[in-house]
Amino acid sequence: MGAQELQRIIAEGENERLEFKRCGNQPEKDLFESICSFANTFGGVILLGVEDDGTLCGIDPDNVLSITRNILNVVNNPNAFDMPVPLEFEHIAIDGRQVVKIDVPNSPQMHSFKGRVFERRGDADMVVRGSAPLAELCIRKQGIYTEQRIFEHVTFDDLRPDLIDEARRAALAKRQDHPWGAMTNEQLVESAGLFGKDYATGKVGYNLAAIVLLGKDGTIRSLCPAYKTDALVRTHDVERYDDRLIVTTNLLDAYRLLADFGRKHLPDRFAMEGDYAVSPRDTILRELLVNCLVHREFTSPFPAKVVIDREGIRTENASRASFEGPLEPDTFNPLPKNPIIASFFSHIGLTEELGSGTQKLFRSSRLYTGRDPELEEGLVFRAFVPTIPATNATSASASPQPRPPEATVSETQTTATTVATGGILSEALALATRPEGLRTADLVEAGHSRRTAQRAIKELTEQGCLVPHGNGRSRVYRCSKQS
Hints:
alpha+beta, 7-stranded mixed beta sheet
Protein backbone atom coordinates (compact mmCIF):
# COMPACT_ATOMS: atom_id res chain seq x y z
CA MET A 1 0.00 0.00 0.00
CA GLY A 2 1.32 3.44 -0.92
CA ALA A 3 1.10 6.69 1.02
CA GLN A 4 -1.68 8.04 -1.22
CA GLU A 5 -3.86 4.95 -0.73
CA LEU A 6 -3.20 5.11 3.01
CA GLN A 7 -4.37 8.72 3.20
CA ARG A 8 -7.52 7.84 1.25
CA ILE A 9 -8.38 5.06 3.71
CA ILE A 10 -7.73 7.30 6.70
CA ALA A 11 -10.02 9.98 5.22
CA GLU A 12 -12.92 7.51 5.23
CA GLY A 13 -12.67 7.18 9.01
CA GLU A 14 -13.02 4.20 11.32
CA ASN A 15 -15.72 1.62 10.72
CA GLU A 16 -16.58 -2.03 11.38
CA ARG A 17 -13.44 -3.23 9.58
CA LEU A 18 -10.98 -0.39 10.22
CA GLU A 19 -9.42 0.82 13.47
CA PHE A 20 -6.90 3.60 14.17
CA LYS A 21 -4.36 3.28 17.00
CA ARG A 22 -1.71 5.70 18.17
CA CYS A 23 1.57 4.15 19.23
CA GLY A 24 4.59 5.40 21.14
CA ASN A 25 7.60 3.22 21.84
CA GLN A 26 5.38 0.19 22.48
CA PRO A 27 1.77 -0.75 21.61
CA GLU A 28 -0.93 -0.11 24.18
CA LYS A 29 -3.39 -2.57 25.69
CA ASP A 30 -6.36 -1.51 23.55
CA LEU A 31 -4.50 -2.65 20.43
CA PHE A 32 -4.77 -6.25 21.59
CA GLU A 33 -8.44 -5.80 22.45
CA SER A 34 -9.02 -4.75 18.83
CA ILE A 35 -7.02 -7.71 17.51
CA CYS A 36 -9.16 -10.06 19.62
CA SER A 37 -12.34 -8.25 18.50
CA PHE A 38 -11.57 -8.45 14.77
CA ALA A 39 -10.52 -12.11 15.01
CA ASN A 40 -13.80 -12.98 16.75
CA THR A 41 -16.00 -11.10 14.29
CA PHE A 42 -15.31 -10.56 10.59
CA GLY A 43 -11.67 -9.58 10.54
CA GLY A 44 -10.32 -6.11 9.86
CA VAL A 45 -7.38 -3.74 9.50
CA ILE A 46 -5.61 -1.79 12.24
CA LEU A 47 -3.50 1.23 11.31
CA LEU A 48 -0.88 1.72 14.00
CA GLY A 49 0.38 5.29 14.12
CA VAL A 50 -2.93 7.05 13.42
CA GLU A 51 -4.96 8.98 16.01
CA ASP A 52 -8.67 8.25 16.57
CA ASP A 53 -9.56 11.47 14.74
CA GLY A 54 -7.51 10.46 11.69
CA THR A 55 -4.44 12.55 12.49
CA LEU A 56 -1.36 10.86 11.08
CA CYS A 57 1.20 10.82 13.91
CA GLY A 58 3.27 7.91 12.60
CA ILE A 59 5.88 5.77 14.34
CA ASP A 60 9.61 6.37 14.63
CA PRO A 61 11.16 4.01 12.01
CA ASP A 62 13.73 2.91 14.59
CA ASN A 63 10.92 1.49 16.77
CA VAL A 64 8.91 -0.32 14.10
CA LEU A 65 10.76 -3.64 14.32
CA SER A 66 10.62 -3.85 18.12
CA ILE A 67 6.91 -2.89 18.11
CA THR A 68 6.14 -5.61 15.56
CA ARG A 69 8.03 -8.19 17.61
CA ASN A 70 6.21 -7.10 20.75
CA ILE A 71 2.82 -7.58 19.08
CA LEU A 72 3.75 -11.06 17.86
CA ASN A 73 5.03 -12.02 21.30
CA VAL A 74 1.79 -10.95 22.98
CA VAL A 75 -0.61 -12.63 20.51
CA ASN A 76 1.38 -15.87 20.89
CA ASN A 77 1.59 -15.64 24.70
CA PRO A 78 -0.88 -18.11 26.29
CA ASN A 79 -1.09 -15.85 29.35
CA ALA A 80 -2.46 -13.06 27.16
CA PHE A 81 -4.33 -14.82 24.32
CA ASP A 82 -5.83 -18.23 24.95
CA MET A 83 -5.13 -19.07 21.29
CA PRO A 84 -2.67 -17.32 18.93
CA VAL A 85 -4.09 -14.96 16.32
CA PRO A 86 -2.45 -15.04 12.85
CA LEU A 87 -1.49 -11.52 11.71
CA GLU A 88 0.00 -9.92 8.61
CA PHE A 89 2.08 -6.72 8.81
CA GLU A 90 2.88 -4.03 6.27
CA HIS A 91 5.10 -1.01 6.95
CA ILE A 92 4.13 2.16 5.06
CA ALA A 93 6.53 5.12 4.93
CA ILE A 94 5.00 8.59 4.94
CA ASP A 95 6.56 11.98 5.70
CA GLY A 96 9.65 10.50 7.32
CA ARG A 97 7.69 8.26 9.68
CA GLN A 98 5.94 4.92 9.32
CA VAL A 99 2.47 3.48 9.77
CA VAL A 100 2.15 -0.22 10.59
CA LYS A 101 -0.81 -1.85 8.83
CA ILE A 102 -2.00 -4.97 10.66
CA ASP A 103 -4.37 -7.33 8.84
CA VAL A 104 -6.41 -9.45 11.24
CA PRO A 105 -8.30 -12.35 9.59
CA ASN A 106 -11.67 -13.68 10.69
CA SER A 107 -10.53 -16.62 12.81
CA PRO A 108 -12.38 -19.96 12.91
CA GLN A 109 -11.66 -20.06 16.67
CA MET A 110 -13.00 -17.98 19.54
CA HIS A 111 -10.27 -15.88 21.16
CA SER A 112 -9.97 -14.11 24.50
CA PHE A 113 -7.47 -11.50 25.68
CA LYS A 114 -6.58 -11.42 29.39
CA GLY A 115 -9.57 -13.65 30.11
CA ARG A 116 -12.12 -11.45 28.28
CA VAL A 117 -13.79 -12.13 24.92
CA PHE A 118 -14.18 -9.15 22.57
CA GLU A 119 -16.19 -8.71 19.39
CA ARG A 120 -16.64 -5.84 16.93
CA ARG A 121 -19.86 -3.83 17.03
CA GLY A 122 -19.85 -0.88 14.67
CA ASP A 123 -16.51 0.88 15.19
CA ALA A 124 -16.13 -0.25 18.82
CA ASP A 125 -14.60 -3.26 20.55
CA MET A 126 -17.13 -4.71 22.98
CA VAL A 127 -16.68 -7.25 25.77
CA VAL A 128 -18.97 -10.27 25.24
CA ARG A 129 -20.76 -10.87 28.52
CA GLY A 130 -23.32 -13.49 29.47
CA SER A 131 -23.78 -17.12 28.54
CA ALA A 132 -26.19 -16.48 25.64
CA PRO A 133 -23.93 -14.05 23.67
CA LEU A 134 -20.93 -16.31 24.28
CA ALA A 135 -22.93 -19.32 23.06
CA GLU A 136 -23.92 -17.39 19.91
CA LEU A 137 -20.28 -16.60 19.23
CA CYS A 138 -19.28 -20.25 19.69
CA ILE A 139 -22.08 -21.39 17.38
CA ARG A 140 -20.99 -18.92 14.72
CA LYS A 141 -17.35 -19.96 15.02
CA GLN A 142 -17.91 -23.69 15.05
CA GLY A 143 -20.44 -23.72 12.23
CA ILE A 144 -23.04 -25.50 14.37
CA TYR A 145 -26.58 -25.61 12.98
CA THR A 146 -28.71 -25.03 16.06
CA GLU A 147 -31.79 -26.20 14.16
CA GLN A 148 -30.34 -29.73 14.55
CA ARG A 149 -30.34 -29.64 18.34
CA ILE A 150 -32.15 -32.74 19.65
CA PHE A 151 -34.80 -32.59 22.38
CA GLU A 152 -35.15 -36.11 23.74
CA HIS A 153 -38.32 -35.45 25.73
CA VAL A 154 -40.34 -33.94 22.87
CA THR A 155 -42.91 -36.42 21.52
CA PHE A 156 -45.09 -36.52 18.43
CA ASP A 157 -47.95 -35.19 20.58
CA ASP A 158 -46.03 -31.92 20.94
CA LEU A 159 -46.41 -31.35 17.19
CA ARG A 160 -49.54 -30.30 15.27
CA PRO A 161 -50.83 -32.98 12.86
CA ASP A 162 -52.88 -30.36 10.97
CA LEU A 163 -49.67 -28.57 10.00
CA ILE A 164 -48.18 -31.83 8.73
CA ASP A 165 -51.31 -32.42 6.63
CA GLU A 166 -51.10 -28.88 5.31
CA ALA A 167 -47.45 -29.33 4.37
CA ARG A 168 -48.31 -32.57 2.54
CA ARG A 169 -51.04 -30.82 0.53
CA ALA A 170 -48.70 -27.96 -0.38
CA ALA A 171 -45.99 -30.38 -1.51
CA LEU A 172 -48.47 -32.33 -3.66
CA ALA A 173 -49.79 -29.09 -5.17
CA LYS A 174 -46.24 -28.28 -6.24
CA ARG A 175 -45.49 -31.82 -7.45
CA GLN A 176 -48.24 -34.41 -7.87
CA ASP A 177 -45.92 -37.38 -7.32
CA HIS A 178 -44.24 -35.95 -4.25
CA PRO A 179 -43.21 -38.84 -1.93
CA TRP A 180 -44.85 -37.18 1.08
CA GLY A 181 -48.21 -38.14 -0.45
CA ALA A 182 -47.69 -41.82 0.38
CA MET A 183 -46.18 -41.31 3.85
CA THR A 184 -47.72 -41.33 7.29
CA ASN A 185 -47.29 -38.19 9.37
CA GLU A 186 -44.46 -39.76 11.37
CA GLN A 187 -42.70 -40.87 8.20
CA LEU A 188 -43.08 -37.42 6.65
CA VAL A 189 -41.52 -35.74 9.68
CA GLU A 190 -38.59 -38.15 9.67
CA SER A 191 -38.17 -37.84 5.89
CA ALA A 192 -37.95 -34.03 6.24
CA GLY A 193 -35.00 -34.39 8.64
CA LEU A 194 -37.04 -33.30 11.66
CA PHE A 195 -36.43 -36.50 13.63
CA GLY A 196 -33.09 -38.17 13.91
CA LYS A 197 -29.95 -38.93 15.87
CA ASP A 198 -27.15 -36.67 17.04
CA TYR A 199 -24.13 -38.88 16.43
CA ALA A 200 -21.91 -36.66 18.59
CA THR A 201 -24.03 -37.21 21.72
CA GLY A 202 -26.09 -40.30 20.86
CA LYS A 203 -29.37 -38.43 21.49
CA VAL A 204 -32.39 -39.45 19.41
CA GLY A 205 -35.52 -37.36 18.98
CA TYR A 206 -37.18 -34.35 17.38
CA ASN A 207 -34.94 -31.38 16.66
CA LEU A 208 -35.39 -27.62 16.96
CA ALA A 209 -36.38 -27.40 13.28
CA ALA A 210 -39.35 -29.72 13.95
CA ILE A 211 -40.44 -27.59 16.89
CA VAL A 212 -40.40 -24.20 15.14
CA LEU A 213 -41.93 -25.63 11.96
CA LEU A 214 -44.65 -27.90 13.35
CA GLY A 215 -44.69 -27.46 17.12
CA LYS A 216 -47.61 -26.41 19.26
CA ASP A 217 -47.37 -22.87 20.57
CA GLY A 218 -46.74 -24.03 24.12
CA THR A 219 -43.90 -26.27 22.98
CA ILE A 220 -42.31 -23.41 21.05
CA ARG A 221 -42.58 -21.01 23.99
CA SER A 222 -41.02 -23.55 26.33
CA LEU A 223 -38.06 -24.57 24.17
CA CYS A 224 -37.47 -21.41 22.13
CA PRO A 225 -38.56 -18.51 24.39
CA ALA A 226 -36.68 -15.82 22.48
CA TYR A 227 -38.42 -16.61 19.18
CA LYS A 228 -40.58 -13.67 18.11
CA THR A 229 -41.30 -11.58 15.02
CA ASP A 230 -42.52 -8.02 15.61
CA ALA A 231 -44.28 -6.38 12.64
CA LEU A 232 -44.95 -2.62 12.73
CA VAL A 233 -46.43 0.02 10.46
CA ARG A 234 -45.03 3.53 10.96
CA THR A 235 -46.38 5.75 8.22
CA HIS A 236 -48.21 8.32 10.35
CA ASP A 237 -47.27 7.67 13.98
CA VAL A 238 -43.52 7.33 13.50
CA GLU A 239 -42.79 7.50 17.22
CA ARG A 240 -44.86 4.39 18.03
CA TYR A 241 -46.85 2.68 15.29
CA ASP A 242 -50.08 2.75 13.29
CA ASP A 243 -50.55 -1.02 13.39
CA ARG A 244 -48.71 -3.89 15.02
CA LEU A 245 -48.57 -7.67 14.89
CA ILE A 246 -46.46 -9.84 17.23
CA VAL A 247 -46.00 -13.40 15.98
CA THR A 248 -44.72 -16.23 18.19
CA THR A 249 -46.38 -19.21 16.52
CA ASN A 250 -44.93 -21.87 14.18
CA LEU A 251 -43.17 -20.77 10.99
CA LEU A 252 -45.96 -21.86 8.65
CA ASP A 253 -48.67 -19.86 10.40
CA ALA A 254 -46.18 -17.05 11.03
CA TYR A 255 -45.56 -16.70 7.31
CA ARG A 256 -49.29 -16.47 6.55
CA LEU A 257 -49.95 -13.92 9.29
CA LEU A 258 -47.04 -11.71 8.29
CA ALA A 259 -47.86 -11.96 4.57
CA ASP A 260 -51.46 -10.89 5.23
CA PHE A 261 -50.18 -8.03 7.38
CA GLY A 262 -47.87 -6.88 4.59
CA ARG A 263 -50.55 -7.12 1.90
CA LYS A 264 -52.86 -5.07 4.10
CA HIS A 265 -50.43 -2.16 4.27
CA LEU A 266 -48.54 -2.22 0.94
CA PRO A 267 -50.14 -1.28 -2.42
CA ASP A 268 -50.30 -3.97 -5.08
CA ARG A 269 -49.02 -2.11 -8.15
CA PHE A 270 -49.69 -3.47 -11.63
CA ALA A 271 -46.61 -4.77 -13.43
CA MET A 272 -45.85 -6.83 -16.52
CA GLU A 273 -43.11 -9.42 -16.86
CA GLY A 274 -42.97 -10.38 -20.49
CA ASP A 275 -46.57 -11.02 -21.57
CA TYR A 276 -47.86 -11.74 -18.08
CA ALA A 277 -49.21 -9.57 -15.30
CA VAL A 278 -47.36 -10.20 -12.02
CA SER A 279 -47.54 -8.97 -8.45
CA PRO A 280 -44.06 -7.73 -7.47
CA ARG A 281 -45.45 -6.78 -4.06
CA ASP A 282 -46.33 -10.39 -3.26
CA THR A 283 -42.92 -11.62 -4.43
CA ILE A 284 -41.17 -8.98 -2.33
CA LEU A 285 -43.16 -9.97 0.73
CA ARG A 286 -42.54 -13.67 0.17
CA GLU A 287 -38.78 -13.30 -0.24
CA LEU A 288 -38.36 -10.89 2.67
CA LEU A 289 -40.53 -12.88 5.07
CA VAL A 290 -39.15 -16.29 4.12
CA ASN A 291 -35.61 -15.00 4.64
CA CYS A 292 -36.58 -13.45 7.98
CA LEU A 293 -38.22 -16.67 9.20
CA VAL A 294 -35.98 -19.34 7.68
CA HIS A 295 -32.47 -17.90 7.79
CA ARG A 296 -32.46 -16.59 11.34
CA GLU A 297 -30.56 -17.73 14.42
CA PHE A 298 -33.27 -19.08 16.72
CA THR A 299 -31.05 -19.15 19.81
CA SER A 300 -30.46 -15.39 19.69
CA PRO A 301 -32.51 -13.14 22.00
CA PHE A 302 -32.62 -10.53 19.21
CA PRO A 303 -36.26 -10.38 17.97
CA ALA A 304 -36.90 -10.35 14.25
CA LYS A 305 -38.60 -7.19 12.98
CA VAL A 306 -40.69 -6.21 9.98
CA VAL A 307 -41.25 -2.46 9.68
CA ILE A 308 -43.30 -0.70 7.01
CA ASP A 309 -42.65 3.05 6.99
CA ARG A 310 -42.90 5.96 4.57
CA GLU A 311 -39.81 4.89 2.66
CA GLY A 312 -40.37 1.16 2.31
CA ILE A 313 -40.39 -2.16 4.11
CA ARG A 314 -37.50 -3.24 6.34
CA THR A 315 -36.67 -6.53 7.99
CA GLU A 316 -33.94 -7.51 10.41
CA ASN A 317 -33.12 -10.75 12.16
CA ALA A 318 -30.25 -12.37 14.03
CA SER A 319 -27.93 -14.16 11.63
CA ARG A 320 -25.08 -16.67 11.60
CA ALA A 321 -23.06 -14.54 9.21
CA SER A 322 -19.64 -15.39 7.84
CA PHE A 323 -18.93 -11.78 6.81
CA GLU A 324 -20.30 -8.28 7.24
CA GLY A 325 -21.31 -5.89 4.49
CA PRO A 326 -23.76 -5.25 1.65
CA LEU A 327 -25.02 -8.06 -0.60
CA GLU A 328 -25.21 -7.68 -4.36
CA PRO A 329 -27.11 -10.19 -6.53
CA ASP A 330 -24.20 -10.92 -8.87
CA THR A 331 -21.34 -11.13 -6.40
CA PHE A 332 -22.49 -12.83 -3.20
CA ASN A 333 -22.09 -16.51 -2.39
CA PRO A 334 -25.17 -17.81 -0.54
CA LEU A 335 -24.52 -19.91 2.56
CA PRO A 336 -27.20 -22.03 4.27
CA LYS A 337 -28.21 -20.80 7.72
CA ASN A 338 -30.82 -23.46 8.54
CA PRO A 339 -30.69 -26.06 5.73
CA ILE A 340 -33.37 -28.36 7.22
CA ILE A 341 -35.91 -25.54 7.58
CA ALA A 342 -34.97 -24.14 4.17
CA SER A 343 -35.48 -27.57 2.60
CA PHE A 344 -38.92 -27.90 4.22
CA PHE A 345 -39.97 -24.51 2.81
CA SER A 346 -38.69 -25.62 -0.59
CA HIS A 347 -40.83 -28.79 -0.46
CA ILE A 348 -43.98 -26.72 0.15
CA GLY A 349 -43.17 -24.24 -2.63
CA LEU A 350 -42.15 -21.14 -0.69
CA THR A 351 -38.46 -21.21 -1.66
CA GLU A 352 -36.35 -22.54 -4.51
CA GLU A 353 -32.62 -23.11 -4.81
CA LEU A 354 -30.32 -21.23 -2.45
CA GLY A 355 -29.63 -17.70 -3.64
CA SER A 356 -32.52 -17.46 -6.11
CA GLY A 357 -34.54 -15.38 -3.63
CA THR A 358 -32.03 -12.53 -3.80
CA GLN A 359 -32.25 -12.44 -7.59
CA LYS A 360 -36.05 -12.41 -7.42
CA LEU A 361 -36.05 -9.68 -4.79
CA PHE A 362 -33.93 -7.38 -6.95
CA ARG A 363 -36.02 -8.08 -10.04
CA SER A 364 -39.33 -7.55 -8.23
CA SER A 365 -38.13 -4.39 -6.50
CA ARG A 366 -37.23 -2.91 -9.87
CA LEU A 367 -40.66 -3.82 -11.21
CA TYR A 368 -42.34 -2.37 -8.11
CA THR A 369 -40.57 0.99 -7.87
CA GLY A 370 -37.74 1.04 -10.40
CA ARG A 371 -35.29 0.96 -7.49
CA ASP A 372 -32.97 -1.64 -5.98
CA PRO A 373 -33.32 -3.14 -2.51
CA GLU A 374 -30.55 -2.91 0.09
CA LEU A 375 -29.33 -6.08 1.78
CA GLU A 376 -26.72 -6.04 4.52
CA GLU A 377 -25.24 -9.15 6.09
CA GLY A 378 -23.79 -9.19 9.59
CA LEU A 379 -24.59 -10.38 13.09
CA VAL A 380 -27.98 -8.89 12.27
CA PHE A 381 -29.18 -9.35 8.69
CA ARG A 382 -30.97 -6.22 7.44
CA ALA A 383 -33.04 -5.81 4.29
CA PHE A 384 -34.78 -2.74 2.88
CA VAL A 385 -37.05 -2.56 -0.16
CA PRO A 386 -38.19 0.95 -1.17
CA THR A 387 -41.88 1.48 -1.85
CA ILE A 388 -41.59 4.98 -3.33
CA PRO A 389 -41.35 4.70 -7.13
CA ALA A 390 -38.28 6.23 -8.74
CA THR A 391 -40.45 8.70 -10.69
CA ASN A 392 -42.07 9.94 -7.48
CA ALA A 393 -38.72 10.25 -5.77
CA THR A 394 -37.43 12.27 -8.75
CA SER A 395 -40.44 14.57 -8.80
CA ALA A 396 -40.15 15.04 -5.08
CA SER A 397 -36.56 16.12 -5.51
CA ALA A 398 -37.51 18.52 -8.32
CA SER A 399 -40.56 20.08 -6.67
CA PRO A 400 -40.09 21.95 -3.39
CA GLN A 401 -42.58 20.85 -0.78
CA PRO A 402 -44.41 23.65 1.07
CA ARG A 403 -43.53 24.05 4.71
CA PRO A 404 -46.45 23.12 7.00
CA PRO A 405 -47.75 26.18 8.92
CA GLU A 406 -47.02 24.52 12.26
CA ALA A 407 -43.52 23.40 11.30
CA THR A 408 -40.52 24.85 13.09
CA VAL A 409 -37.79 23.42 10.88
CA SER A 410 -34.81 25.46 9.73
CA GLU A 411 -34.22 26.67 6.18
CA THR A 412 -31.67 23.88 5.82
CA GLN A 413 -34.30 21.30 6.67
CA THR A 414 -36.65 22.86 4.12
CA THR A 415 -33.91 22.52 1.49
CA ALA A 416 -33.60 18.83 2.29
CA THR A 417 -37.31 18.37 1.75
CA THR A 418 -36.82 19.56 -1.83
CA VAL A 419 -34.41 16.74 -2.55
CA ALA A 420 -36.34 13.79 -1.19
CA THR A 421 -39.56 12.69 0.36
CA GLY A 422 -38.41 13.47 3.90
CA GLY A 423 -37.83 10.22 5.71
CA ILE A 424 -34.23 9.60 6.64
CA LEU A 425 -33.02 12.94 5.22
CA SER A 426 -35.37 14.95 7.40
CA GLU A 427 -34.51 12.72 10.33
CA ALA A 428 -30.81 13.29 9.75
CA LEU A 429 -31.21 17.05 9.59
CA ALA A 430 -33.29 17.09 12.76
CA LEU A 431 -30.54 15.19 14.59
CA ALA A 432 -27.89 17.50 13.13
CA THR A 433 -29.50 20.53 14.80
CA ARG A 434 -28.61 19.14 18.24
CA PRO A 435 -25.61 20.63 20.05
CA GLU A 436 -23.77 17.32 19.79
CA GLY A 437 -24.48 17.10 16.06
CA LEU A 438 -25.18 13.99 13.96
CA ARG A 439 -23.17 10.77 13.70
CA THR A 440 -23.75 7.84 11.38
CA ALA A 441 -24.38 5.69 14.47
CA ASP A 442 -27.36 7.92 15.39
CA LEU A 443 -29.23 6.91 12.23
CA VAL A 444 -28.25 3.26 12.66
CA GLU A 445 -29.68 3.33 16.19
CA ALA A 446 -32.86 4.85 14.73
CA GLY A 447 -33.35 1.68 12.66
CA HIS A 448 -31.67 2.49 9.33
CA SER A 449 -28.96 0.34 7.78
CA ARG A 450 -25.44 1.75 8.00
CA ARG A 451 -25.24 1.87 4.22
CA THR A 452 -28.46 3.91 3.98
CA ALA A 453 -27.30 6.23 6.77
CA GLN A 454 -23.94 6.86 5.10
CA ARG A 455 -25.60 7.54 1.76
CA ALA A 456 -28.08 9.99 3.30
CA ILE A 457 -25.31 11.90 5.10
CA LYS A 458 -23.22 11.98 1.94
CA GLU A 459 -26.16 13.32 -0.08
CA LEU A 460 -26.90 16.07 2.44
CA THR A 461 -23.21 16.99 2.68
CA GLU A 462 -22.89 17.25 -1.11
CA GLN A 463 -25.96 19.52 -1.17
CA GLY A 464 -24.36 21.78 1.41
CA CYS A 465 -27.03 21.03 4.02
CA LEU A 466 -24.55 19.39 6.38
CA VAL A 467 -20.96 20.26 7.25
CA PRO A 468 -18.58 17.62 8.67
CA HIS A 469 -16.45 18.38 11.72
CA GLY A 470 -13.50 16.20 12.76
CA ASN A 471 -12.38 12.79 11.54
CA GLY A 472 -12.75 9.16 12.53
CA ARG A 473 -14.73 8.50 15.68
CA SER A 474 -14.93 12.20 16.50
CA ARG A 475 -16.52 13.17 13.18
CA VAL A 476 -19.93 14.76 13.51
CA TYR A 477 -22.18 16.60 11.06
CA ARG A 478 -24.01 19.84 11.75
CA CYS A 479 -26.45 21.87 9.71
CA SER A 480 -24.66 24.42 7.57
CA LYS A 481 -26.50 27.30 9.29
CA GLN A 482 -24.96 26.21 12.59
CA SER A 483 -21.38 25.99 11.31
